[in-house]
Amino acid sequence: MADVQKENGYTTIANELLEAITGSNLTLRETKIILCVIRYTYGFQRKEAELSLRFISVSTNIDFRHTQTVLTSLISKNILLIKKGNQGITGRIISLNKNYDSWNTLDQIGDTNKPLALTKKVTLALTKTANGSIDQIGDKERQKKTLKKEDSCFFDLIPDELKTIEFKEAWQDWITYKKEKKDKLTASTAKLQFKKLIRFLNEGMNPVDIINQTITEGWTGLFPLKQNGESSRRREQNQGILIL
Question: Could you give the angle at which helices 113-131 and 64-76 cross, rounded to 10 degrees?
């Protein structure tokens, strides 16, 4: 049985803003992503947060293939704002637009073509940013920044047993998650966590699932996958439960 208490963490949001969300013509996926942004912004007493597409996908249980489409829709409707697009391994800086009068929801503007046009523009902009085609930094400078960011993720320390594309993406999300928790990893800590994940791998558990479980549950450490019921460490490690 879930033990939901405000003492374990809570998110403060103005009633007027919450009513604007529930009263808008939004899809379930759009609503889930909005709540995810609220959880990791207002839930940490801040206005914006660095959130990667994979982190949002894991947090909302939305298929990764659909996450960018839904996020693009919310940006085109002016509900979510992007302060900085994703560059290299850095996630997008996202915030919720509190001025709900400026939201371009269908029930407010009555023009079904406008959101579609905006969606196409935002999708193109996000795609160009992801591909680096609008990057104004010179090739050499961009390469230096990319190497610096990769070093900060300790990709060079990943053991051979864990060197897969799927694990690298999950580990990148883990680094971003730790930064949001203001608990940055050191090289020595990363090595210990790699050893721990290899031990879980040898016990038949997928290291990627281990990382995703921790991010989804809001824990601070890596623990065995839950079997039937709660993990024995959940009560001690769970932080920041979303309560509206």
Answer: 120
What angle is formed at CA 164 by the lines to CA 174 and CA 71, rounded to 5 degrees?
50
Q: Count CB atoms within 10 A of the CB of residue 234.
A: 16
CB atoms within 10 A of CB 244: 12
User: If you count them, how many residues does the chain have?
Assistant: 244
Which residue, among 56, 81, 64, has the nearest Cα to 176 in the 3D structure? 56
| pLDDT class of 88 with cuts at 50, 70, 90 | very low
Q: Is the pLDDT of residue 199 over 50?
A: yes
Structure tokens at 44: 């940490």
Strands 48-51 and 92-96: antiparallel
Task: Tell me what the pLDDT averaged over the chain comes to.
Answer: 77
Give pLDDT, residue 147. Answer: 38
For domain 6-131, the CATH architecture is Orthogonal Bundle (1.10)
Contacts of 44 (CB under 8 A, 6+ apart): 180, 240
Domain ranges of the chain: 6-131, 153-237
pLDDT, tens digit (0-9, with 9 covering 90-100), for 52-64: 888 899 999 998 8
**Prediction pTM value:** 0.48
DSSP category for residue 186 = -
